[in-house]
Write a structure and sequence with these properties.
- The chain is an alpha/beta fold and 308 residues long.
- The protein has 10 helices and 14 strands.
- The chain has one domain (2-307): 3-Layer(aba) Sandwich (UDP-N-acetylmuramoyl-L-alanine:D-glutamate ligase), CATH 3.40.1190.20.
- The chain has helices at residues 38-48, 61-74, 112-125, 146-153, 167-173, 185-192, 199-211, 250-263, 268-283, 296-301, and strands at 2-6, 10-17, 31-36, 53-59, 77-82, 88-95, 100-104, 131-135, 160-164, 180-181, 216-220, 226-230, 234-238, 304-307.
- The strands form 3 sheets. It has a 6-stranded parallel β-sheet, with helices on both faces. A 4-stranded mixed β-sheet has the order 3-2-6-7. The protein has a 4-stranded antiparallel β-sheet with strand order 11-12-13-14, sandwiched between helices.
- A hairpin with a 3-residue loop joins strand 12 and strand 13 (234-238).
- The two termini are 33 Å apart.
Length: 308
């Protein structure tokens, strides 16, 4: 069983349009509406891998009900904390030039009693030596050190926490020593306030996160693949080019793959190759968080993991 925590899930509406630079009204019948948010995408990918998964987090209103129904249909175990306000909706637009625009609602305001209820539920649900994937932004009225508090509270149960967030919540959480963090390049630049145009600078910035507490760091580079580093080693991951990539959800698919690989005892190079294959598979699909399981073996042969 892998556990996921989604504090700010969403209904994702993805629209495909001819040209995002057009000033005139755009009409399209090419769109998808689905349960989303980073943590929900992780659940969807894990279930496509037939991995038993328990989803925790906040859900409210009709949007929350839609997400619950989607995950139930996928066979996930649900342990969400109900909230008074409505779960958010996020919009994404992609044109024929592969330009993408995202409009992300900040999300509901969480009441103190709701956040305390979630903390208790989390400690009650997770068994010792399990894997918890924490993904996404914090909703309103949640302190920036909330993720730090959660990771700290789970230490006595030896939980491996994979954390995919950004900004101040990520910076604050590093001291709790999460097993893995996965910033993208823009997020790492914001964290370190450094020019990261060169790979050597990127590895140095990743070392900074390790020094601040992270046990492992993956730097997502989009079509450029990724870098991995811990205190023992570092790797460069190169992925195949895709003609019409849809990058939204690929990072979440990578996280799901890494969690799966960790649970099933893959070594680090195997884990990086497998996780990257899931990210590439998602990028080949219009639907966010959709992978082609039958293609994963072939995709892994097209991915290189070289020591740096």
């Amino acid at each position: 069983m892998i556990y996921t925590l989604s504090l700010n899930p969403a209904i994702d509406r993805m629209y495909y349009v001819p040209d995002l630079t057009c000033a005139a009204p755009i009409r399209t019948d090419d769109y998808h509406v689905q349960a989303g948010g980073k943590g929900i995408n992780v659940v969807k990918v894990l279930r496509q891998l037939q991995e038993p998964t328990t989803a925790l987090g906040f859900l409210g209103g009709a949007a929350g009900t839609h997400i619950e129904q989607t995950l139930k249909a996928l066979g996930a175990t649900l342990n969400f904390t109900p909230i008074k306000e409505e779960t958010r909706t996020c919009l994404a637009f992609q044109d024929q030039h592969n330009q993408t625009l995202e409009v992300l609602e900040t999300g509901p305001t969480i009441q103190k009693k709701e956040s305390e209820r979630l903390k208790k539920q989390l400690k009650k649900t997770l068994p010792k030596n399990s894997i918890l994937v924490i993904s996404g932004s914090l909703p309103k009225n949640i302190d920036d050190d909330f993720y730090f508090d959660i990771i700290q509270s789970l230490k006595e149960n030896a939980i491996d926490v994979i954390l995919d967030t950004s900004g101040i919540p990520l910076r604050a959480a590093l001291a709790a020593k999460p097993y893995l963090v996965k910033p993208n390049l823009a997020e790492l630049i914001a964290l370190t306030d450094t020019d990261l145009s060169e790979e050597s600078a990127q590895l140095n910035a990743m070392q900074t996160l390790l020094d601040q507490g992270a046990q492992n760091v993956v730097l997502s580079l989009g079509e450029g693949g990724a870098l991995f580093a811990n205190h023992q080693t570092s790797y460069k991951i190169t992925v195949p080019k895709i003609a019409t990539p849809n990058p939204i959800g690929s990072g979440d698919s990578f996280i799901a793959g890494f969690a799966y690989a960790l649970k099933h005892g893959y070594n680090i190079r195997e884990a990086l190759r497998f996780a990257s294959a899931l990210g590439v598979s998602n990028a080949k699909n219009k639907e966010i968080g959709k992978i082609e399981v039958e293609d994963l073996e072939i995709l892994q042969t097209q991915i290189t993991v070289k020591k740096r």
